[in-house]
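README, section 4: Worked example with a bound small molecule

Sections 1 through 3 covered apo chains. Here we extend the same pipeline to holo records, where the ligand is supplied as SMILES alongside the sequence. The molecule in this example is coenzyme A. Nothing else about the input changes; the structure line simply encodes the ligand pose together with the chain.
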Amino acid sequence: MTTYSQLQRKDVNEIRKLALASWLVTYKNIFTRNSIRRQVLNHYSDKNFQKVARSIKAKKGGYFVIARKKKILVGYANVGEKNREWELKRIYVTPKILRKGIGSGLLHNVEFFLKSKGIKRYCAHPHPKNSGAIMFYLKTGFKRNRMGDIGKNSPCYLKAI
Ligand SMILES: CC(C)(COP(=O)(O)OP(=O)(O)OC[C@H]1O[C@@H](n2cnc3c(N)ncnc32)[C@H](O)[C@@H]1OP(=O)(O)O)[C@@H](O)C(=O)NCCC(=O)NCCS
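The generated complex, written as structure tokens:
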């Protein structure tokens, strides 16, 4: 059984480990190993987690959910508001157990949160070469939305909820 809960400080180190493991697989043909290590250190730095924590506490706050199986961290997802649009900033599942419904479970959880705030749509910006993530988004109801692109390496996929 997979359980979902909100991010706590004690989860941070496990998240970093999962992030690095996933990035090394996901982006192996896109970035070098050194670049991946640098980016993960940067995106999952203490400073960035403090930013996430502040965003969660803020009035229009974001949301960070983690998934565990038998107490082991197996995935996480994070949504927040940027330029008045809600965005799926992160969604990662441990590489050993892909295609078992954990990603869909994380999205379901995130959407429950968004709906509770009256939000009607949100977007994701996968790397254009990240075909696995793009297939996942299309399968789970996102549609390509060129108007929302942030440059050529950040195409927009939008989902109405
Ligand atoms: C994207 C991701 C979170 C999906 O999580 P998941 O637990 O594997 O997804 P699910 O099992 O819920 O998949 C639901 C459906 O999406 C589609 N799908 C998911 N991954 C897919 C892939 N790699 N290729 C094609 N279709 C895929 C399938 O239709 C799947 O249903 P099925 O397995 O019954 O055919 C996961 O693949 C992941 O962590 N990828 C690496 C990190 C990443 O790219 N994150 C996104 C950054 S923008």
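What to look for in the output: The longest strand covers residues 72-82. Residues 22, 26, 91-93, 98-104, 124, 126, 130, 132-133, 135-136, 139 surround coenzyme A (CB under 6 Å).

Section 5 describes how to batch many such records.
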